[in-house]
């Protein structure tokens, strides 16, 4: 491996430009050598701005021509698995945006490729990498929560459908609506803070009630390109219930559009010694002090991003063998199986066993 890691990027849309590119540009151990986007003009514009010499519209060509050490995948969801497997087979370590894949077979194939070729595969779980999440993890690891036995999490938007008619709302390209889009973030955070129990059974319901509505009063609808002639065949609300192998349970709720009082993301975990809530990034602890139930508000430094910079730095530490991965392919397989199970449960109207 050369002194600087050679990076190739697949997919140069919003999340790459906004959250990945600034970190890569500032990373002393990484050189961006090639960009690829099927919409080549997007990649070309970034390349021109930052003096990146090689631009492609076909990632297989990029992987064949460039000797890449690392590949960052930021395409729409349906292409993550194939791009990751091709990059791993070409010898690169892979960082891949969430969700890992749009179905369980693809998630398993990605994980298997990473083992077979001894390459790192890390999906983005940026919410684990905020200062608040790190604090909560330390609090849990120190045993202050006791036995964590149940929780609730969600990300509920009033009006925030990303790119209506574009890839986000087209199941073939996205794998689903807010459950796979937003659910990955907070179900993952819950499971990580619960100590990564194995999900064993799920139950869920999905609804699509806003496909025909023209209302769009949320900043979150800025994600994705709209297409008035396009498809909307995913849910706009999902609710569900997850059972884990250790007896713990998790209630979930994710919406892109819903007639509710307030938009928020949240996570509550309840343990035998304490509980906590995380609401729009602000944490509160609930515990007994001197036989009195108290609410403790940690005074944490606000951070500028949502964890991408810390996770990208961690990925490089893992590639350089300075750290063990915090996010593993096996956890990705569990996550995609869980989400697929909820969709299956919603379709069949009954609980689905995952193991
Ligand atoms: N972690 C987060 O907080 C977060 C936030 C937003 C989006 N995302 C994820 O990032 C990914 C991209 O989302 P986005 O909002 O940037 O979408 P986007 O549509 O803005 O960008 C996707 C880009 O990928 C390109 N692309 C699609 N298929 C390709 C292929 N086969 N080869 C090369 N390029 C291809 C598209 O032309 C587009 O430029 C999604 O998986 C999404 O779930 C993550």
**CATH class category name of the largest domain:** Alpha Beta
CATH level-two architecture of the largest domain = 2-Layer Sandwich
CATH topology of the largest domain: Dihydrodipicolinate Reductase, domain 2
Low-confidence stretches: none
Ions, cofactors and other ligands present here are:
nicotinamide-adenine-dinucleotide
In whole angstroms, the N-to-C terminal distance is: 40 Å
Which range does the strand content fall in? Answer: 25-35%
The chain-level mean pLDDT equals 95
Q: Helical proportion? A: 25-40%
Shape: globular
Number of helices: 11
**Gyration radius over CA:** 20 Å
Largest sheet entry: 9 strands, mixed
Number of strands: 15
Overall SS class: alpha/beta
The total domain count is 2
If strands are numbered along the chain, what order do they take across the biggest sheet? Answer: 14-13-12-11-7-10-9-8-15
Query: What's the order of the H and E elements?
Result: EHEHEHEHEHEHEHHHEEEEEEEHHE
The CATH superfamily of the largest domain appears as: Dihydrodipicolinate Reductase, domain 2
């Amino acid at each position: 491996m050369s002194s600087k890691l050679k990076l190739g990027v697949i997919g140069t849309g919003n999340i790459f430009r906004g959250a990945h590119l600034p970190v890569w540009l500032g990373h002393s151990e990484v050189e961006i050598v090639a960009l690829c986007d099927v919409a080549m003009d997007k990649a070309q514009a970034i390349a021109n701005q930052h003096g990146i010499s090689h631009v492609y519209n076909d990632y297989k060509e990029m992987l064949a021509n460039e000797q890449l050490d690392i590949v960052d995948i930021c395409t729409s969801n349906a292409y993550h698995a194939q791009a990751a497997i091709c990059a791993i087979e070409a010898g690169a370590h892979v960082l891949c945006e969430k969700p890992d894949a749009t179905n369980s077979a693809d998630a398993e194939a990605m994980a298997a490729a990473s083992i077979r070729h001894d390459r790192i595969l890390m999906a983005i779980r940026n919410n684990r990498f905020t200062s608040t999440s790190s604090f909560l993890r330390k609090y849990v690891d120190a045993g202050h929560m006791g036995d964590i036995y149940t929780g609730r999490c969600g990300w509920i938007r009033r009006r925030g459908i990303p790119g209506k008619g574009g890839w986000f709302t087209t199941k073939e390209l996205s794998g689903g609506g807010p459950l796979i889009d937003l659910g990955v973030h907070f179900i993952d955070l819950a499971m990580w803070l619960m100590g990564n129990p194995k999900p064993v059974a799920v139950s869920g319901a999905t609804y699509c009630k806003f496909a025909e509505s023209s209302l769009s009063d949320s900043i979150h609808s800025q994600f994705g390109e709209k297409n008035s002639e396009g498809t909307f065949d995913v849910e706009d609300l999902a609710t569900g219930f997850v059972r884990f192998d250790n007896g713990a349970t998790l209630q979930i709720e994710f919406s892109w559009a819903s007639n509710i009082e307030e938009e928020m993301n949240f996570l509550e975990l309840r343990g035998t010694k304490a509980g906590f809530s995380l609401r729009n990034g602000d944490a509160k602890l609930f515990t007994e002090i001197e036989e009195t139930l108290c609410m403790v508000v940690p005074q944490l430094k606000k951070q500028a991003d949502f964890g991408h910079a810390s996770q990208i730095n961690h990925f490089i530490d893992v590639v350089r063998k300075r750290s063990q991965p915090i996010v593993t392919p096996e956890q990705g397989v569990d996550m995609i199986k869980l989400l697929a199970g909820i969709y299956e449960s919603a379709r069949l109207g009954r609980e689905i066993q995952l193991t």
